Amino acid sequence: MAKIPVASGRVVIEAVTPQVDGGRYPAKRVIDEPVVIEADVFGDGHDAIGALLRSRKTGSRRWQETRMTSAGNDRWRAELTPDSLGVWQFEIEGWQDHFATWLEGLEKKLDAGVDVSVEMDIGARLYTDAAERARGADAKRLSEIAGRLAVEGRIRDRVDLGTREEATRLAK
């Protein structure tokens, strides 16, 4: 099976909050109280978008990652809870979420009773490609899902893929 070409669409991140004077000065918060981080994240076309908040205390080598949730109308939200005094950094990553786009389209076609054999092949390829990029248990799980999608049988049995969160977490 040939690799699925992936368009290099743009994802824009803007209107990030909190910020003081356009990010010139740090926003101040209280230790152990959540800070709501929001941004407008959107892209070209109709593909679903995903967003991730990465945060760390300045000087730390390790970033903490939190999946952002859609607040509607291209606005995304996550929380950061500083657990010690100091300067904290955060950054936001956005991407076209090909798994979410595929799942949404598949669900619509299944609900409409439309033939989804092509979508099953596309899904198998998405999971196979993700398995090649993953390691260990994640790679094994992605390969298992790809194999289930590729076999003949009842569509509903083949589409029971677990949650979107699992697909997104494993494939990212």
Tell me about this structure.
35% of the residues lie in helices and 28% in strands. It has 172 residues and is of the alpha+beta class. It has a 4-stranded antiparallel beta sheet, with no helix packed on it. A 3-stranded antiparallel beta sheet has the order 4-3-7. Helix 1 (98-112) packs antiparallel against helix 2 (117-133). The mean pLDDT is 85.
Return the string of H and E elements: EEEEEEEHHHHH
Separation of the first and last Cα atoms: 21 Å
Query: If you average the pLDDT, what whole number results?
Result: 85
Q: State which percent range the strand residues make up.
A: 25-35%
Count of DSSP H/I helices: 5
- Contiguous low-pLDDT stretches (5 residues minimum) are none
Instruction: Give the CA-based shape.
Output: elongated
Helicity level, as a percent range?
A: 25-40%
Gyration radius from CA atoms, angstroms: 19 Å
Main beta sheet strand tally, sense and closure:
4 strands, antiparallel
Strand order of the largest sheet: 1-2-6-5
Structural class category: alpha+beta
Give a nutshell description of this structure.
The protein is an alpha+beta fold and about 170 residues long. It has helices at about 100-110, 115-135, 135-150, 155-160, 165-170, and strands at about 10-15, 35-45, 50-55, 65, 70, 75-80, 90-95.
